[in-house]
Design brief:
homodimer; about 350 residues; alpha/beta; Isopropylmalate Dehydrogenase; 2 domains; 11 strands
């Protein structure tokens, strides 16, 4: 039995320590083999741990950092000026091998830029990708990438993303020979732009990728594919449009439920059901996007994650460490390109 | 009082005459100034009209066409080989000035290709765009374009789309000085790819467009903008991803409602409410996308539209004729480029 260590950016996110520390405590209580290094302001961390009666937990240690990366700071600015930030230090602990993964709910752009700078990409990978799993109409999940790490992807990069997504689905989700699809405006071979068409050719030629062709936006959620690949511009907008629709539905429920006494009673009765559905289908709830393709594991939690959602991000990191995702990606890329 | 004439592709769509003809009948009954030319197989049309006791309606005429464009036929094939199809003839009636608009639920790719070939674009417009209105959290709608007419848009074309969308919002929706936004992966100026950044510059320089900057995918539905502009690849995938999420929610409602007696009762009680919400937020229900930028009006209905939804597409066409949308686009482009 080996222990796993995670470096946690305690200060990141919309709320910081009040969310990240209780989540860390819950995570170590569930997993006696997990150690967490809490990166951030020492006095705040100590106070919070003491409040939770966890000052002496052998599974928790503190790494003091004097700076915090704000949610609205420019990535390039943070790279130059926030070298003692909780996010940067958490990434450096991964780089040094003192932690197996970094988990942060901080500024996404800063996390991508700092992670890329500190950890570097794996051999054969040009750019990292942000990937997350989403619900489908069956019990299975689907991996969608890139969600915004790279807005200028050529077909070679889309190909690398397909390989990386395939490894994620196989190792983290346990799917044998995952079905990989390219997101396109139609399923026919003639559809799409040149970049997508060329990526499809590269994937058709690769013998160790189960490439099933193109799928359209409406089929992301129909369990036609285990991995859906697109560039960071399209992936980010598609995911956020779905989040926006989820919020619109929530607003609409509230609006309709106030229309009259009947709808008010109906809404009151139906609310638990609606909440259950909403929590299952709202992409916002699928916390823990991973930045993959780097020489280390980085999990990005939503900025406004709850304690429970942040725990989900920690669990995601644990899973990726134990399945050695980066080295599996490295191996698969080597075989694919050889 | 002037009459308006619409050329209807009777044979298009998943169902054809059983949907399109009753919708046409309902539309003329609601609007005594509306004439509809039914393009398609004469004997099928006559039989259907007779069944509905409308064989002698002065508002309906028949234009016999010997061919039908199938839903899976390639656009280029239809252009060469389906010159006597109901879709092609309906477009030609618009070209000749015998109809003010063409309405079709047929093959989208074929409609775009044939419309572009038959009608040509307006001066100053390089490519037509597919545009539709979507719901927002308020009572207002938002126009999203391009939804897939053009998957390779440079910044000039994005700029033209912004002008066209602005005219649609102003003329069809009656919004004074509509707020126009570019869809991007972030709201900050530094975000996005070069194409989007350059389009933003062109729009900032244009004095007669109320350009409000970038918005992200989740803000499509928040009434931040009246017009949201993106290329056909992104727009198509974002819209279809939302449709997919809508379907996922419908599946989830069914699944959860069958879990146990309590959820079954809840679901039964909540069903009318859920249906109401679903019909308001499901982008699929917003029937009647317009192909704009052409020297004529073309409205595309969903292939699987109901009679009611197809009527909505006819109403959309009537509105565009009476507001003279193509000539307004021509004027606005002229002023903008001068």
């Amino acid at each position: 039995m080996t222990t796993l260590t995670i470096a946690l950016d305690v200060m990141g996110g919309d709320f910081g320590p009040p969310i990240t520390i209780p989540a860390a405590i819950a995570a170590i209580q569930q997993d006696p083999l997990l150690n967490i290094i809490l990166c951030g302001d020492k006095s705040i961390i100590e106070t919070t741990l003491s409040k939770h009666k966890q000052s002496n937990s052998p599974q928790l240690s503190i790494f003091h950092c004097s700076q915090v990366i704000e949610m609205d700071e420019r990535p390039a600015f943070t790279l130059r000026n926030k070298t003692d930030s909780s996010m940067r230090k958490a990434l450096e602990l991964v780089k040094k091998g003192e932690a197996g993964a970094c988990v942060s709910a901080g500024n996404t752009g800063a996390l991508m830029t700092n992670a890329y700078y500190v950890l570097k990409t794996l051999p054969g990978i040009d750019r990292p990708a942000l990937v997350s799993s989403l619900p489908t109409v069956t019990d299975k999940k689907v991996y969608l990438l890139d969600l915004g790490a790279n807005v200028n992807c050529d077909s070679e990069i889309l190909f690398q993303y397909a390989v990386m997504g395939s490894v994620m689905a196989e190792e983290v989700e346990g799917i044998k020979n995952p079905r990989v699809a390219l997101l396109n405006v139609g399923e026919e071979e003639i559809k799409g732009n040149d970049r997508v068409k060329h990526a499809a050719q590269l994937l058709t030629d690769a013998t160790n990728i189960n490439f099933i062709g193109y799928i359209e936006g409406n089929d992301i959620f129909t369990d036609k594919a285990d991995v859906v690949v697109t560039d960071g511009f399209v992936g980010n907008i598609a995911l956020k449009a779905c989040e926006g629709l989820g919020k619109l539905i929530a607003v609409e429920v509230k609006r309709i439920s106030h229309q009259n006494l009947f709808t008010r009673i109906m809404a009151r009765l139906a609310l638990p059901l609606l909440k259950k559905i909403y929590s299952r289908v709202n992409p916002d709830q699928y916390n823990g996007a991973s930045l993959i393709g780097l020489r280390g594991i980085v999990v990005k939690s939503h900025g406004n994650a709850s304690i429970e959602a942040f725990q989900y991000a920690i669990r995601e990191a644990v899973q990726e460490i134990s399945r050695q995702v980066p080295s599996k990606i490295k191996d698969k890329i080597e075989i694919t390109l050889s």
